[in-house]
Design a protein that fits this description.
32% helix; 7 helices; 206 residues; single chain; globular; mainly alpha
């Protein structure tokens, strides 16, 4: 099953719209997964969350997006002295949308601003995990005070809903322009989130 974008919209956008596989969320019974299997699922989740495609926008109160993972950028900071401000959309100086066009059509040119079909912005500062350890990210994601008040099922639905709207999460697996995608697949990551939850959301020691 594919997430459908109407032909009229695709033509209006002047290109072939990106299509994303619909993501299925099937919660597992609590306690049905061992702690060891839950930790194994978490380690895969962390490989996704800490990958530059994800972590570069999950930054702290300095409001500076990152370009980590790009050769020649030792400081890892977004070029052109960009700061998204407390608005997290750049309203105070240069809006993210100045370069990051909201569009369902991909921009596959290397080094060109990537597209997503929702307005481009940094993740809320409460969701910052750039540079954090696996344990720190794990504790953050299981804490409703730091994850938007979500339980594990709602976290999985958050991933699926964003992807099915061709948002930033889906883009992480389809970044184009020669960019390295996050590992695994989106469906596998949603499954890992649910597996981790069924195991009681165990976190590593460090």
């Amino acid at each position: 099953m594919k997430a459908v974008i109407s032909l009229g919209l695709a033509l209006a956008l002047g290109g072939v719209a990106m299509a994303a596989d619909a993501v299925v969320v099937k919660p597992l019974p609590a306690g049905s997964v061992s702690a060891s299997d839950g930790l194994a699922a978490w380690e895969r989740i962390n490989k996704v969350a800490s990958h530059p495609r994800c972590s570069n926008c999950h930054v702290g109160a300095d409001n500076v997006p990152r370009w980590s993972g790009i050769a020649g950028r030792a400081d890892g900071k977004h070029g052109m002295n960009i700061n998204a401000g407390v608005s997290r959309i750049g309203a105070e100086a240069i809006a993210c949308s100045t370069c990051h066009v909201t569009s369902a059509t991909p921009n596959d040119k290397p080094h060109a601003p990537p597209h997503a079909d929702i307005p481009w912005q940094l993740a809320p500062v409460e969701f910052a995990w750039f540079g954090k350890t696996s344990r720190e990210i794990c504790l953050q994601l299981k804490n409703p005070g730091q994850n938007g008040g979500r339980n594990v099922t709602v976290l999985a639905h958050h991933l699926a809903d964003d992807a099915n709207h061709l948002g930033f999460i889906q883009w992480g697996w389809n970044p184009g322009g020669g960019r390295e995608p996050v590992p695994f697949t989106l469906q596998a990551t949603v499954n890992d989130v649910l597996t981790w939850g069924a195991a009681g959301m165990p976190c590593p020691a460090k």
